[in-house]
Amino acid sequence: MSEDETARTAVRTYVPTYQKQRWSEEAEELDMSRSEFVRTMVQAGRRSFDLDESPDSDGAGGANESIADGPAGAELADRVLAILHARDEPQTWDDLVAAVTNDVEDRLDEALGTLQEEGELRYSGRDGGYVPTGDR
Q1: What pLDDT, on a 0 to 100 scale, did the predictor assign at position 61?
Q2: In this model, does residue 54 exceed pLDDT 50?
Q3: Is the pTM of this model over 0.85?
Q4: Is residue 125 situated within a structural domain?
Q5: For the chain, what is the domain count?
Q6: Which of 51, 74, 89, 124 makes the best surface tag, with the fewest CB within 10 Å?
Q7: 82 lies in a domain?
């Protein structure tokens, strides 16, 4: 790679204060800077959430197999080990579930906001939840 390709550059994003605080806490738990934590989580997310369009797909982008099977399962196992090594005490099932799924709610909230802004869905109190607005 050329020097231009490996040079560092700043990336700016805006997140709610609680999200920044959570990232800072988790980075500290893993003995990382916040920048390194965000960079690592983005790369991990890109590897873990590629859409599967194969015949084994469930039609919603996920594979019809256990999360423990294949590369995604290996990545999850590696992530669990990293969490256990980074923390100085035993972790309960609930601690580990929270550690590996902590950002799902935030990503869902962001996706719902984006879809609402794009007019793809709306929240309907009458229907008791989100409903699509288009034909998609």
Answers
A1: 40
A2: no
A3: no
A4: yes
A5: 1
A6: 89
A7: no
